[in-house]
Amino acid sequence: MVSNLDVLPTVAALLGVKPAAALIDGRSLLPVFRDPGEQIHDYLYYFDNERVVGVRSPRWKLVSHGYYRRHLGAFEAFDQLPGFQGSYDLLFDMQGEGAEDYSYADRYPAVVSRLKNALWAFRREVEPLQTQPPGREFPDRQNLQ
Fold this sequence. Notes:
Elements: H1 7-15, H2 30-34, E1 44-48, E2 51-56, E3 60-63, H3 65-71, E4 90-93, H4 109-126
Antiparallel strand pairs: 1-2, 2-3, 3-4
């Protein structure tokens, strides 16, 4: 797994330049160039503006319910839509056929838990860097009373 954020550190490594001590999100792709099976990231993260909404491991992709609550639920009864009564977290097997056709969240709760822990840890890490207030989310049905 690689990201476009890996381009800067890769170019710097090729030029023999050490980036400043500032935080650089990417990692050099040179190990992947030498061995295509090399993994330089345990996880990649998906953002919706400044909010972390998903996480990807080599096999799995988890998209958090918050993303769907903001983009699909433009009304208060969002939780009454078919398929959204329970957890909205979607887990996809990216190595399977039809990778994002079906959510495996109910079948692999341990994977969901592991990825959610990684997602929340990364959210805590980047939250202090946010420049905008959190986006609007539609409340849970039980909190509407």
